[in-house]
Fold this protein.
Amino acid sequence: MSSEPVADGRITRVIESALIEDIGAGDVTSEAVLAEDAIGFAEILCKGDGVIAGLEVAAEVFALVDPGLRVELLVPDGSAVRKGDIVARVRGSAKGILQGERTALNFLQRMSGIATITRAYVNAVAGTKASITDTRKTAPGLRVIDKLAVRLGGGVNHRFGLDDMVLIKDNHIVAAGSITRAVDLCNTSLQARGLHLPLEVETKNLAEVNEALQCTGITRIMLDNFPLDQMAVAVRRIAARVEVEASGGITLDTVRAVAETGVDVISVGALTHSVRALDISLELSHHV
């Protein structure tokens, strides 16, 4: 399978920044050790089981380092992989391969770690209606990468930033004085600006759920750190009038029980804020 350029300018900018950070004024070691015309062949190898994500990003890394490098992707992004699997091959300038190696692997390892844990959560709620979503708890500057990895793991993306969804959280409620007041202010602002955005409200107890249900314009209610019994009551009370999101300290051990309360969405910050990278290496087998 031949590689294709990453069709997202935001990702290209992230890669360019990472390459500048890593290469700086030049790879002094490779320049000293390798002849200018040395040709290399490398394999990218999984050293653990998981879900591979970021192969197309890695291919873009090598293309930006040296457009003459040929990258062959052997499996699609989002595939389950086992220890020992070869997922890609790179041919061309040995210097180019080694200049791109660390940046490509950094993206691959992080993204695959995110995709792997996301897939575990998705599998844990299989058969329920709940979807697994991420949060904004991403590495600064890497949100587009982190959220792509979540999708490749089978999850869905929550809002990307502060501008694509109204999410009234506890601090907004304190500032406004109540849920009702905060919702009214947001609805008025959206109308004045001609914006049509989803509106979600965070609630911390059943009384706040009741208040939110009396407001207009809400598309989703978040149940933040609700005990399971209270979450089930809230889902029945909301009765599918709006979407229901569960959030707050949800783990692989508890996510199934949360899903079985009938919520629509389960947000898990740990997908991206506590990443355990998948071990992946690049091995240059020969050069001439």
In short: The chain is about 45% helix and 20% strand.
